[in-house]
Automatic annotation (TrEMBL):
TM ranges: none
Top-level taxonomy: Bacteria, Pseudomonadati, Pseudomonadota, Alphaproteobacteria, Acetobacterales
Domain UPF0033, residue spans: 1-60
Name listed for the protein in its UniProt record: Sulfurtransferase TusA family protein
Endpoints of the signal sequence: none
């Protein structure tokens, strides 16, 4: 379900805009960056946080 929400947010954006995403769990942390890049978006930054979450900064392609 997490990727669906990220995809909907990216679909509403214009090319070049950035989206900051906070993720929990191993599966979203593996799949969302990979899938976003496969769909033509750029992964600008990925940060693992002490609370177990990860922050991703994506730029819409």
């Amino acid at each position: 379900m997490t990727f669906v929400r990220v995809r909907l947010a990216l679909d509403r954006m214009t090319s070049g805009e950035t989206l900051l995403v906070r993720l929990r769990g191993e599966e979203p942390r593996r799949n969302i960056p990979r899938t976003a890049v496969e769909q033509g978006h750029a992964l600008l930054e990925e940060e693992d946080r002490p609370d177990g979450t990860a922050l991703l900064l994506l730029r819409k392609g």
